[in-house]
Amino acid sequence: MVEKQLSRERTSSWSWILQAFTGVMLVILLGLHMVVQHFVVQGGLRNYQQVVQYISNPFVFLLEVAFLIIVTWHALLGVRAILLDLGLKPKTERRWTAVLTVIGLAMITNGIWLSATIVSQGHV
Amino acid sequence: MKLNVKMYRYKPGTEPHYDTFPVEVPETGNVLDAIERAWADHDMSIMFRHACHHASCGSCGLLVNDQEKLPCVTPVKDYGEGATLKIDPMRNMPVITDIAVDASVIYQRMQLIGMPIIRNAETLRPDKRTILPEGLETFGRFENCLECGLCLSACPVMATDPQFLGPMALAAAERLLAEPRGVDVEHIYQLVDDEHGVWRCHSSFECTEACPYEVDPGAAIMRLKRKVAGRKIKRLLGG
Amino acid sequence: MASEVQPKPVKRKPMEWFNLKGKRVGFWGYVVMRLSAIGLVLYLMLHLVILSQLAMGPSAWDGFVAIAKSPAFLALDIVLIIGILAHGLNGIRLSLIGFGVGVPRQKIMLWIGLVLTIVFSIMSALAIFSEVK
Known about the structure:
The complex is a heterotrimer.
Chain A: H1 15-40, H2 48-56, H3 58-84, H4 90-122
Helix pairs in contact in A: 1-3, 2-4, 3-4
Chain B: E1 2-9, E2 17-24, H1 31-41, E3 62-64, E4 67-69, E5 84-88, E6 95-97, E7 100-101, H2 104-113, H3 150-154, H4 156-160, H5 166-178, H6 185-192, H7 206-210, H8 217-236
Parallel strand pairs in B: 1-5
Antiparallel strand pairs in B: 1-2, 3-4, 3-5, 6-7
Chain C: H1 25-51, H2 58-68, H3 71-98, H4 106-130
Helix pairs in contact in C: 1-3, 3-4
């Protein structure tokens, strides 16, 4: 006879494993993000032209998109983890997960669009 | 040794407050002795749990100066002559009166896991004559668990998540998975592989610090995470 | 009869996140993780918003770069670096112990992470401010 608060639908979860995995990837990606900026363009990114030159490099473009996806994923999984600590109702938890997923997809889409725009502006 | 016992008081229908009682206990005494002196000499309406007086029953768990302790084995010498002992009820459990809490928080979680703690007379240190049960390389220390609830009191997640299984039940689950003895292992995995099971633990290790009997629930939960994650990854890869 | 007594419902207490009394070093690790996480999420959003200035062309961007070189901004950069180091180094510890690796040494790992955070933060601060002209 278990009190209602403890009984809930049990659902297997990958969230923490993904959190750890994306976290470790970020150690590498963040390192690359900081280091590559100093080497792809002479003197680093100190003005608009250098930014365009930087992001137009295909390897850099892919790196930055990958970084954006992984960091957004890790960040929003983290926000979700803090919310789940509040022991909300399963329905509320699902709603928050949906909201955070939408926010994440919006951030990633916006970032990819922005990068593509800068690359195309550079060829004007 | 003279001490002050600053006792949390709450009777239903009144505001919680602290009452301070001067007591005198032998130097070799424990905090529980000081509480009993406060009760006997000053105010017999103080409600507190105690039974065995030797860290075997797990009844007397409380906070001394905001740290989880079993007062029956906590020496007053730790605090010194003239010290004030602030006595509070365990955290994360509803207070019934004074420092007596509703311990269903503890027992419901152990019931959910299947009440696995069977504290038979097992030797802790196997010698060459000891025959270990199949699958065990050494005796685990989980049988030490008194089910006192101090780990649940110390855990920061227990404070905000009423659905969390908590360190005690999770460590018990790890013990079961290490040595199932015929228990339904799938069922245990289902209970713990859940957002409010093992995944709510954030490794603060306050449970390990609070445990009066070296159960080290924190380490048990880390081993449990390894088991649960390992099983999921193996299944994903078709194992 | 014991079975007729209903257990009291347990209330959720978010204010306990701020109750630091009697807590030990592992709890502080948890607090640092959480605070740096929230700070970094806010930084991420801010960073992405500022980068959208790039879409407005050279004059908008170069205007931002001028601010980015100011000492106040650079000081905030160092706060960011402290946050990243604290969160990242402790995160590596959490990933290791969460897969059962090195658990008996978890407290040592916490202290090493703290020391490395301080050391690398100071090194970064020196590197950044030595370039300020």
